[in-house]
Amino acid sequence: PARGTPILAVEAAVKRFGGLVAVNEVSFGVNAGEIVGLIGPNGAGKSTMFNLLTCTMPMTSGRVRFLDRDISGMAQRDVARLGLARTFQHVKLRPHMSLLDNVALGAHSRTRAGVVRAGLRLDRAEEQQILHEAQRQLARIGLGDRAHELAGSLPLGTQRILEIARALAADPVLLVLDEPAAGLRRKEKEELGDLLRKLRDEGVTILIVEHDMDFVMKLVDRLVVMNFGSKLVEGVPAAVRADERVQAAYLGS
Ligand code: ADP
Ligand code: MG
């Protein structure tokens, strides 16, 4: 999609857990070519919102549109195939496999999700094509010369970056990241931020759910702030940072 085109629209999303309203009538959108941050204090409903918009969890009411399709209620696998890629807050790499094989596995979520479970029974040409693409994605994130190291031997920050490469191997339209900076050291956060900006400049659209305010503020084009399940404020980083309601919400947490 051309830069600026709306690609994701969350419309009046609601999620109830029994009597608790974790997400309360939240609406926002993401346009092609931007990095949008979804932030808020602990318990604000960020992870629940993330799960709703990636179709990891069903909504109580509301809709999510992705590329002009209503994806509410779709299986996550099918949504991934449409080009909506997600990463996990807790790294889900295969530690005993090489970097290259980890990324190659990611290529399947878009193309032939069933093949992975079937044990990667591919013909040679297809296998070569996938490995070639995986190598290209590793080079893109600066790990091209470490393709044959084991994923489990990497420091946490590098594992996070590898997980992004795995998501990119499926050639997503939208990359949705859940707290990618959590647990990273300052230097690792900087590297991650540099990578995400580079990807954005290459045309990847990114939605990042993040608790770390400083990390997000320096990174994103636009922010959506949640508090107590509702959308509190939406805007550019400078405006959000200066907003009294946002300051109060973070101070109170
Ligand atoms: P955040 O990610 O912003 O910290 P969450 O989305 O994890 O917030 O949680 C929002 C609210 O929903 C919290 O009060 C949390 O306790 C509650 N919650 C989240 N997941 C569940 C669940 N599976 N069952 C019941 N309550 C939940
Ligand atoms: Mg969370």
Structure explained in plain terms:
The chain is an alpha/beta fold and 253 residues long. It has a domain at 6-83 and 173-251: P-loop containing nucleotide triphosphate hydrolases (Rossmann fold, 3-Layer(aba) Sandwich). Helices cover 40% and strands 25% of the residues. The strands form 2 sheets. A 6-stranded mixed β-sheet has the order 6-7-8-3-9-10, sandwiched between helices. A 4-stranded antiparallel β-sheet has the order 2-1-4-5, with helices on one face. A hairpin with a 2-residue loop joins strand 1 (6-17) and strand 2 (20-31). The longest helix has 17 residues, at 124-140. The radius of gyration is 18 Å and the shape is globular. The N and C termini lie far apart (38 Å). The structure holds adenosine-5'-diphosphate and magnesium ion. The site of magnesium ion has 2 residues, from helix 1. This is Branched-chain amino acid ABC transporter ATP-binding protein/permease. Residues 8-253 form the ABC transporter domain. It is found in: Cell membrane.
